[in-house]
Amino acid sequence: MTSSFSSSLLSSSSGDSTDRNDTTLTLIPGLPNDLSSLILSFIPYSHHARLRPTCKSWRTFFSNPKTLLSLRRTHLAFSHLLCIFPEDPSLTPPYLFDPHHLAWCPLPPMPCNPHAYGLSNFIAVSIGHHLYVLGGSLFDTRSYPIDRPSPSSSIFRLDLSTSTWDCLSPMLSPRGSFACVALPNSGQILVAGGGSRHPMFGAAGSRMSSAERYDVEKDEWVALDGLPRFRAGCVGFLVGKGVDREFWVMGGYGESRTVSGVFPVDEYYKDGAVLELKNGGKWREIGDMWEEGERRRLGKVVAVDGDDGEMPGIFMLDRNDIFRYDISSNRWQKESSVPKKAPTDTCFGFAAIDGELHVMSAINYIDSVDIRRPRQQKKLPSLFIQIYHPKKGTWRSMTTKPPFKCRLDFKTAVLCSIRL
């Protein structure tokens, strides 16, 4: 594998005879390229962009995705990263965050549609070294009335090895705020439910029950049996291995009622539905997951992959508490509480990275003695991350300075973990 890189390195300079004896053609002076490429492959992905301009050989090496990713897979030198979309990715570029090295890596913005703006409630998933951005809710200048949000069926894919975006075949039904999972090692994506709701209109928008499957190799969508009922704002995750996998869809809202006959209020679901991926893919319903009055709606849900064939751990962040879902009893059981509570007017970000639960919040380090200094108050807040290890039952924390030019709002930001 490394010998192929050496040949590509030499061929890249064959057009310039003056560079053949240049020391920059070697990766690390004094070491063979095979050993040097192995050493460089262990550098975390978040630092690659800054190392490319070092010299011609490093630019060639870090721009060779097949060799680099193969070396990392062979020697298990993966970087577990978090991709954060603070706003509409066509206007505000997303970033990769490496929690192990507290490093940030900017990504290119998504291609812009001159007729659409304000994309939100989209879903981001990862397959290999690709990030997929699916659907969402947006405003379209060609629609009427112009201030009414519309669901999107667009699919974009970011190749992290080349930092380029591709527009793929759209979904059969446009949707936002839907359940979505990527099937590992199969090149497929499943979506179910959704609607057209936009954060600017908290109680409007459509609902739907349709489900689809996307084939990455064929770049095509296939319709599946729809959910038993309309369900938007739901979450999805996988349970099981191989042919026994099941697509679980939980929570969300469907019907609505009005208060005093004027103000619309959502009726949030306490149950879920499960799609068996074998035997024709049929849905079955599961009962209520909590008792009346226990909570109003489902919180933020993430899945932690199990080891050696174990069932994945399903966790929910509900305000300041973390709950674990018990499949056998169909109940959420309290696992732990967040050490540093969030203010009532803020929202936590919640993600699973490398088997740990990351609870994120924006904090401001302005002390009362510094209020007199106006320059201090212009500083953007830091990102405070509290990390819970489910198997050890322990907490730790870290603080980092995000590079965003705007305040990070976890009520609307989209998070996606990826392993490179």
From TrEMBL:
Residues 1-21 are annotated as: Disordered. It comes from the Eukaryota. Residues 29-66 form the F-box domain. Residues 1-14 have a biased composition (Low complexity). The gene is LOC104610079. InterPro entries: F-box-like_dom_sf (IPR036047), F-box_dom (IPR001810), Kelch-typ_b-propeller (IPR015915), Kelch_1 (IPR006652). The lineage of its organism: Eukaryota, Viridiplantae, Streptophyta, Embryophyta, Tracheophyta. This is F-box/kelch-repeat protein OR23. SMART domains: Kelch. Pfam families: F-box (PF00646), Kelch_1 (PF01344).
